[in-house]
Amino acid sequence: MGIAQSFERRLEQFVEGFFARTFRSGLQPVELGRKIAREMERGKTVTQNGVVVANHFRVFLSPEDTVRFGHFESSLRQELADGLTDECRKESWRTLGPIQVEFVTDADLKLGRYVIESRIIEGSFAASQSARPEPDPPPAAPTPAARTPPPPPPAGGTGPRLESASGETLVLLKDRIWVGRLEDCAIQLDDPNVSRHHAEVTVDASGAWVVTDLGSTNGTYVNGIRIGGETPLQDGDQLSVGRNTVVFRT
To answer: What is the pTM of this model?
Structure first.
């Protein structure tokens, strides 16, 4: 039995009785749980330490469905998170933090329509309870020992940087930057194929620069190859998200 089928049965039991009668129209909790489970399974990444899956799911709902879910939203979110956690244990999948589900209202969505965004977030994360669309919070900050500060630029040079085809240059002065559509991204892209927080470029424990996809829908590519976990960046590597490509320079 796949993760989606197993999770669906669990949710069917959860919405029996009163909840089942309440949800005769519009988005069904069972359908929502099934799609979240499939999103988790679809985005799994095989690493040396096993299979890693997303642990934070942001569900954008129509205003009508937000109202319908409102009276037991907390219980439903907890049931979704607990169910996904149990399925991960059964499948021996790993997460980098606790599984959390967040509901956000999107005024552009119609009754029964929804959008699911999945991300891998390292460490604990307190999901927002806002009923309005807000920017994704950045991934949890690592412990001080987890990362090495970026190396200083060489004398007379600009140091590690990302260069666009149009000639724009972003010097990497911080040990972590985000690429995506939101305003807190150092590389902000107005591209529907790019997720809100699509990828991050960071310094790993050895001081090398790496890029990581943040559970985006359309993926992150290095030299035309879709990446999974942390991928080292070498001078001249082409980093692509959506329709946009930048070149990593040292």
So the answer is: 0.46
- What single letter denotes the amino acid at residue 80? L
Contact 200, 18 (CB under 8 A): no
Q: What is the pLDDT of residues 121-161, one digit of tens each?
A: 765 433 332 333 344 444 444 444 444 555 554 444 467 89
Instruction: Using alpha carbons only, give the angle 79, 85, 89 rounded to the nearest 5 degrees.
Output: 145
CA distances from 220 to 83, 202, 215, 216, 240 (A): 29, 14, 9, 8, 6
Half-sphere exposure of 212 (CA within 13 A, CB side): 22
- Cα separation, 189 vs 186, whole angstroms: 10
Contact 88, 154 (CB under 8 A): no
Q: Band of the pLDDT at 202, cuts 50, 70, 90?
A: very high
Amino acid identity of 162? L
Cα–Cα distance measured from residue 117 to residue 102, given in angstroms and rounded to the nearest whole number: 10
Q: How confident is the model at residue 232 (pLDDT cuts 50, 70, 90)?
A: very high
Residue 160 · residue 249 · CB < 8 Å: yes
Q: Which tokens hold the place of 19?
A: 């909840």
Which residues on neighbouring strands pair with residue 244, listed in sequence order?
Answer: 241
CA atoms of 58 and 117, how far apart (whole Å): 5
